[in-house]
Amino acid sequence: MARSTALRDQLLACLIFGILLKFGESTIHEAGRCVMYKECTPGELNCINNTLAVQLSGPDHKTFLAQVCPHLADSERVCCDLDQLNTLNGYLAQVLGVFNRCPSCQANLIRYQCDLACSPDQSVFVEVVPDSPTATEVTKVRLYATEEWANGTLDACRDVFFPSANRPVIDINCNGYSAEQCQPEIWLDAMGNPANRFAKFTTDVVLTSNVDIPGMEPLDSVVTSCAEKASPDLPSCSCQDCRAACPPGIQPTIPPIAEPFKVAGIDGYTFAVVVGFSGFAVLFLAGVIAYHCMRDSDDHPEMEDGKRPSKKQPQITEDDVSCFEKIGKVYDDAVRSFFTHLGTYVAYHPLAVLLITLAVAVPCSIGFAFSTVTTDPVQLWSGPNSRARTERVYFDDKFVPFQRTEQLIITANQDKYKPTKYTPWNSDEPLTFGSVLNIKVLEKILEVQKYLQNMEVERPLEDGTSETISLADICWVPVTLLPPPTTCAITSPVQYWQSSNRSLHQTATSDDGRPQDWHDHFLYCLLVCLLHLSLVQQIFYHPSMSTQSGDTILFSPPNRNPLALADGTNLALPLGCVSEFLGPSYPFIVLGGFNVTDEGKFPIRSSYRTVGLTDLFTRPTLKRATLDRDESGEPLYHTAEAVMVTFAVNNYRDDEEDLQFKRSLAWESAAIEYIEKYLEENDDLVIRYMMERSIEDALIESSEADILTIIISYLVIFAYIAVALGEFSSLKRILIDSKVTLGLGGIVVILLSVTMSMGIYGYLGVATTLIIIEVVPFLMLAVGADNIFILVLEYQRDVRQPGESREQQIGRVLGKVAPGMLMCGLSESISFFLGALTDVPAVQTFALCAGLAVLIDFLLQITAFVALLSLDLARQESGRVDVVCCTPPCPCGKGNIVRHPGFIQIFFKKFYSHLLLNKWVKPFVFLGFILLFLICGLLTLRLPVGLEQRIPVPDNHYLLDYFDYVEKYLSVGPPVYFVVKFGDMDVANKVEHQNLLCGSAGCDMQSLSQQVFRASNIKDYTRISTPPTSWIDDYFDWLTPSTLENSCCKVYEQHPEDFCNFDPWETCETCVPLSQKGERPVGEVFEKFLPEFINHNPGISCPKGGRPSYHDALHFTNDSQTRLDASYFFSFHTVLTKSEQFTAACRESRVIAAQVKADLQMKNPDLGDDFDVFSYSFFYVYYEQYIDLVQKAITNISIALVPIFLVSFFMLGFDVISAFFILLNIIMIVVDTLGFMYLWGVDFNAISLVNLTMAIGMSVEFVSHTTRTFRMCTKPTRNERAKYALYHTGSAVLSGVAMTNLPGTIVLVFATSQLFEIFYFRMFLIITLLGTAHGIIFLPVLLSYFGPGINKAQLLIEQQEDKKALLANGPKQHEANGTNPIYETGLGSGDEIPPDYAEVVTYEEIGVKVNLKKKKTASEDKSNVSEKEQDTSPEETTHM
User: Fold this and answer.
1) β-strands 1068-1070, 1114-1116: how paired?
2) Which segment of 518-532, 824-838, 1234-1248, 1319-1333 scores lowest on mean pLDDT?
3) Do 1286 and 1213 form a contact (C-beta atoms < 8 A)?
4) 622 pLDDT above the threshold of 70
5) Which pairs with CB-CB distance under 8 Å and at least 24 residues apart come from 719-725?
6) CB 693 within 8 A of CB 1304
7) For the chain, N or C: smaller number of CB within 10 Å?
8) Using an 8 Å Cβ cutoff, are 913 and 1286 in contact?
9) Residues with Cβ < 8 Å from 916, sequence gap 6 or more?
10) Is the dihedral of CA 887, 890, 896, 902 positive or negative?
11) What secondary structure letter does DSSP report for 455?
């Protein structure tokens, strides 16, 4: 009876309780009571149950509770049974696995979820929100908690990093907000939203300090800071996952920028130059004035006519000549004698010499056919042994070469398409979509993408047949499924609809009747694609499909993407936002030109509501997203004005025939043709594009585009040389006295030196470059033309001595000028050869070719050209017409050969030399050049280093438009890899070695991951924008169980030696028991499961599968993949568009890698000599050179100057002063060139270095000949010797080097290529003008002030010969004849009286005797006397 009464009472109580619920009475909220208990649907929804906390059912229940919820282990009553506990365990395994790196964060979340599901006081802080009064299943609860608890829980997890996604975990589970922007309510609601596919019911978290419902209080449980240990046996979170855990001073800081050196508010260097120059100028001018005041004293009486008497040469004896001067004289006499005999022999046998020349030159030149022309920028600018090339080879060998990138940046035609408005289905606020995000524009983009994807290309084969290829034959396929499909990796916005036109046009209606279309799906995808950053992280599994390794693949149901919010639409797109190739297309990669918000964080409203999709797209806009955008703002991708379509193509060369490479080139060519044709026929899209081959094609096109300009330039030079060599004495002899044939012959000789040089290197297998083909001929024309003019003009000035034959005269003239040619040739050649010591291939090959060409040119000029000169003189003297020399002699050729000096010679002799070397002009010229040198030195310090990628591209090339779009729309930087060569590092067996690489809890503070992570915190300085992906951290998380019986790594229970990939038909167990959680895997465990990790695809059950991110990131030394010898850690650079940015990124990443290596070796000296850490990115091979190019250039130029000084020193009779002045002028020309480069916008790079190397060679021609003439002249004063050198040799230098280069250089201004216009026209013009200015303006003034003393050895010989002549003829005879027995040439006569304006030699007596007919006027006599008497000074006194 009692039992029945009790049963009746219970039934009555239940009835009353049901009635109360029916009428909306409040649930009981008190300690020890539940609001839900048991599962109404197994594994799914809990039952609404306001029962008291239930007693544990037994030991298994208690044990299981202690394992899943350690903080409830002491509880005897809970609100969850075994089934609920098992469901909770599975939920924790799936959701919290990504937080394994930070035990404290994970412990807080476990405590939170356990309190929500099992706490015996559940009703105190949890309220069930039923769907209806009769509902029995829990679909939504409201959890009240304190803000302190919520903020503490979020802060403990905010920095936890997801290595394979290269970003914080919070970024992927805070409803689309970044870790910095995430707020506690948003984050907790996101985890409690069933849309994430893990939560079974909705959890609405309300943060408050007081709950109005009786009996309820906000949850305020203990929160463990991430800097604290969650338990004694677990470490605290690492610095990378918890900023609070970072010890003081560990966080990097940007090195302070050094304060600019200033004095009195102006640049310190400028101040030093101004003060220093001012002081020097004052002292110099004071010295000049003092000298002239002393010179005008009574010590120098004047003659009656007011003129100063001429200084007589001192009488020299043997004792006055120094040893060095004697040796120099002996050497000079020997060289003169050798070249005199050689010239005479060649002049007597011209045809034989020419035949021998051709017999040698032609075979040598043919070798050019065996040489290859290098156009690959990598081979041009990065040496085979350079660090970048070595590291690139290592990376390609150990891992996979970086893909060839084929990219299209597409915008809509702004005249046809404008931004549009659209109101999403779940919002009342309209959004603005960019003009490119238009359904018609997307259709066009899809059309282009699909055509390129399916395009078939016919590639011709060597046997005359062809093969048909498509993108599928060359593209990178990140995930290969068995059975197919296998799809190329193509990132594009239309991939959000799997590149399906049908899916793009799919529409639906929401449950509340609102339309849904592609706009809504696009907005959803902007969130989904932020879930993972590595290229293939979102892969969905289905039992009917498997990977190559046999892994089971599960596709998620519609709108149930892993770790993502569902879009809530009824569009029913099976793959959601996943691309065809089963990977995401990230919005920051495929979209550009979008706006950003003006705030980095968004405060939660006091009246909280669930955040919808539109909350991310309706924030106030700050500005259009550009490379300089405020990165703290939130990107508004729907406002994008550009889309990027990128095709990833394999970049390896698979066999000796380079089949893969050739196929890629063929496809790229066809793609370019298609795009060009498409743009001609359609105006809806504006497409800017670049294929991998585009840069190299542009370099070739740039050179080919200006071939005509170069040819015209050379023709102008040829015409000048041919015309300028002639002696145009009278109109009737113009065809006889012209030197067109000789000029053209000289040009052929010069070009032969170039072809022979290139041919010899062709036989030796040295590849040539376009720079050699374009620059070396120009250099050789300058050098060769100078020698030609010096030789020909010297002959034309020379007077044949009595009894001397034409051939002997040619030999004697060659003996006079060849030593100077030899000095210049040897200086230049050795200088170029030493310049080849550089490791920049383009500079190296140029220097080698130029050095050999200069040497060959000298040899040909003293042989072949002398032979041509002999034949031409014989033609001229026989009266034959030039060019058609085989015709009979012309009657007009009979009579006298009248030799008029050229206009330049007359101008230099009569006017220019007197003006320049006037005592009042010289000081200002000297000081002006010194000031110019100092100013240019200052400007050199500001000269930019680098080569902008648009410079080598021809005008109107499609790449220029592409580069403009890159700068305007690009929003992601290039990847960077930190590669580790393991050496003796043993990560499989030594935990301390593991700690040197990883970045999670327990890892070393100076580990690689930690240091790169900290470097990314100051990305504006280091150019590292993201922390690194870390395979070892993800491997630990993948291998270690997060909860009981739940782990990514499982083995079959029946045969644990085999890996279990979530097989639903067999029982599996974790690879490592839960008891070993927190322990590092070592030995057999580490080696056994590592191959499984890198072949495991991530998915719903395990987001940490390593195949997409790390399959190619590790290199093993054995087939079983157990022994590692190399791996890489992947990150991104910041956005880079300028040369200096690329260079800085390369430099700073290397600094980081070097610091990592040093720190790791210091902590573990046993890593071995082979251990190394280096950074690598695909662009390093191009920009590495600029890191130390300035230092290399200084070294190379200094080395090149050494032989010039030494050769000049020895060949000028051991004259240090002359050699130093040659060196000084060359240095000034180089520095001035650098200064004018800054003023004219020419950056310093390898091309500039080639031109500077050429400038050194040309500068030798500008200054060496004049210096040697000054040195060999025996006039009594420096001023007179400077005048003689100026009009005797300076005029030839101007006619040769300067006037030869200028016309050809000016033509280059019409080049279409920026490369030619900037680095050839501008630099060649600067070099030519500065070289000319120093050679004929500054150098004579410098020599007149500080030149070496008179050559006593030469003077002694001349005085001895003069005495002999006086004894033989008597002085009166010479005075009567007006001749000097020593100096018998015209303009180069030894006396100070100017020679006759015309020297007339009778035709009949040519070669026998010379008659000089005087034609002097009174004014000329007076002028000559004036010239003779001015500017004389004591011999060994500097003439001011």
Assistant:
1) unpaired
2) 518-532
3) no
4) no
5) 720/1299, 720/1300, 720/1303, 721/746, 721/747, 721/781, 721/785, 721/788, 721/1300, 722/747, 724/789, 724/1295, 724/1299, 725/788, 725/789, 725/792
6) no
7) N
8) yes
9) 922, 925, 1286, 1337, 1340, 1341
10) negative
11) -
pTM: 0.78
Tokens of 1165: 């000296």
Q: Taking the alpha carbons of 1042, 1046, 1048, 1053 in that order, is the dihedral positive or negative?
A: positive
Q: Please give the Cα distance from 1245 to 951 (Å, whole number).
A: 12
* Helices within 427-536 (DSSP H only): 439-454, 501-504, 518-528
Is there a contact between 1123 and 984 (Cβ–Cβ < 8 Å)? no
CA dist 667 and 474 (Å) reads 9
Which of the 8 DSSP states describes residue 1018?
T
Using CA atoms, how far apart are residues 517 and 469, in angstroms rounded to an integer? 37
pLDDT of residue 562: 29
Q: Which amino acid is at 819?
A: P
Largest pairwise CA distance in the chain: 171
In b/e form, how buried is each residue of 1048-1077, taking b as 16+ CB within 10 angstroms? bbbbeeeeeeebbbbeeeeebbbbbebeeb
C-alpha 122/C-alpha 184 separation (Å) is 21
Q: How far is it, in rounded angstroms, from Cα 958 to Cα 74?
A: 73
Range with the poorest average pLDDT among 10-19, 195-204, 479-488, 1071-1080: 10-19
Spatial CB neighbours of 1059, under 8 Å, sequence gap ≥ 6 = 1049, 1050, 1051, 1089, 1092
* Closest-CA residue to 934 (of 283, 277, 282, 280): 277
Nearest in space to 1013 (alpha carbons), one of 1150, 1116, 1152: 1152
| Cβ atoms of residues 234 and 80 within 8 Å | no
In terms of Cβ atoms closer than 10 Å to its own Cβ (0-12, 13-18, 19+), residue 350 is buried
At 1412, list the tokens. 């000089």
pLDDT tens-digit profile of 954-1006? 888 899 999 999 888 887 788 999 999 998 999 999 999 999 999 888 888 89
What DSSP state is assigned to residue 33? B
Look at residue 1431 in the predicted model and tell me its pLDDT.
41
CA–CA separation, 1391 and 1373 (whole Å): 16
Q: Where are the beta strands (DSSP E) in 350-446?
A: 373-374, 404-412, 420-422, 431-433
Of the candidates 1163, 1187, 1303, the residue with the CA atom closest to the CA atom of residue 1245? 1187
CA–CA distance, 303 with 754 (Å, rounded to integer): 59
- The rounded distance, in Å, linking the Cα atoms of 1204 and 1260 is 8
Instruction: Using alpha carbons, select from 239, 227, 216, 223 the residue that is nearest to residue 151.
Output: 223
d(CA 473, CA 471): 5
Distance CA 578, CA 601 (A): 29
- Mean pLDDT (whole number) for 1003-1028: 89
Cα dihedral sign, 964-965-971-972: negative
DSSP string, 1044-1059: TTB-S-EEESSSTTSB
The two tokens of residue 388 are 């970048």
Rounded (5°) CA angle 860-863-868:
100
Cα torsion at 259, 264, 265, 271 (round to 10°)? -80
Q: Are 551 and 462 in contact (CB under 8 A)?
A: no
- Compare 822 and 609 and report the one with higher pLDDT: 822
Q: How far is CA 148 from CA 104, 208, 218, 232, 1059, in A?
A: 17, 9, 11, 25, 44
CA gap 1260, 1339 in Å, rounded: 12
* Cα–Cα distance for residue pair 314/310, rounded to 1 Å: 12
* 1005: Cβ contacts below 8 Å, ≥ 6 apart: 238, 239, 247, 250
